[in-house]
Design a protein that fits this description.
single chain, mainly alpha, Non-ribosomal Peptide Synthetase Peptidyl Carrier Protein, Chain A, 4 helices
């Protein structure tokens, strides 16, 4: 599974939607702070990627946050 596929799966689960596209905006989909915190935890647990809150706001789409995660150095 690619990073983008994993991110999309996490978003679908946490936002309780099945129809999220790569360029859909998190906030337009009904995303809010509590869901964002759960998604951050899932990114860390499932992808080994720590995505700070400010980066979640700067990268509000599956495509942009996936690119951000892919740009992170590997976690030990």
């Amino acid at each position: 599974m690619t990073t983008a596929e994993s991110v999309r799966a996490i978003w679908c689960r946490e936002l309780q939607r099945e129809d999220i596209a790569a360029d859909d905006d998190f906030f337009a989909l009904g995303g809010q702070s509590v869901i964002m915190v759960r998604i951050q935890g899932a990114f860390l647990e499932e992808l080994g990627a720590e995505v700070p809150m400010d980066q979640m706001f700067l990268h509000p789409t599956v495509a942009s946050v996936s690119a951000y995660i892919a740009s992170l150095p590997p976690q030990p």
